[in-house]
Amino acid sequence: MLVNKIMTEQVNISLKLQRRLSVGLAAATLVVALLFFAGSVLLNEPWFAALVVQTGLTLESFVAVFAITAIVLSTGAFVISWKRRSFLGAGLLAASGVVFMIHPLTIFMMHFMMHSQMATGHSATIPGGPILVVILGLGILGLGVVKGIRTPRTSVAAAR
User: Alpha-carbon distance 34 to 97, whole Å?
Assistant: First the structure.
């Protein structure tokens, strides 16, 4: 009886920790997406671009650092919360994907509105074109959507 009670308490603690960790990773993904958005907009400012160059980062490495971090954090949040209900985690992941795509989509739309030339200062913001970052944002958004779809199904299956 005592062993059963101890094991039940351990399981409850690990479930709470698992939920907190998954939501924390999803929140960290949103923070990284917001920092990427702010940094990519600020790269158009000469003082910020000079600061980035002084740290030794190139534009490609600036994008790569945020992209790899977002991939790892969002995948970790999704995997940890695989069989757990979490609308908060799903919402944070979906918001992260949308925020990650805002600036590249803006550049893309400006390009098509200008037709002949890229908008001033925006061509150097995301190396290799904004399409790669949009694909990454769609992937993170997809994780949030899948998590959001699985959450109600998990709760219905658990209720039966």
Answer: 10
Helix axes 46-54 and 2-42, enclosed angle (nearest 10): 120
Give the CA angle between residues 134, 136, 49 to the nearest 5°: 70
Tell me how far CA of residue 34 lies from CA of 11, 59, 64, 98, 156, in angstroms.
35, 17, 15, 10, 34
Contact present, 89 and 28 (Cβ < 8 Å):
no
Cα 104–Cα 21–Cα 23 angle in degrees, nearest 5:
50
Sketch the domain layout of the chain as residue ranges: 2-154
Residues 6 or more apart in contact with residue 19 via CB below 8 angstroms: 81, 84, 86
Which among 117, 119, 130 is positioned nearest to 40, based on CA atoms?
A: 130
Give the count of beta carbons closer than 10 Å to the beta carbon of residue 27. Answer: 18
Task: Write out the chain's pLDDT in tens, 160 residues.
Answer: 555 555 556 556 677 888 889 999 999 999 999 988 888 878 778 888 788 788 887 777 777 888 899 999 999 999 988 878 788 989 999 999 999 888 888 877 776 666 545 444 444 455 556 778 888 889 999 999 998 887 666 555 555 5
The model's pTM is 0.74
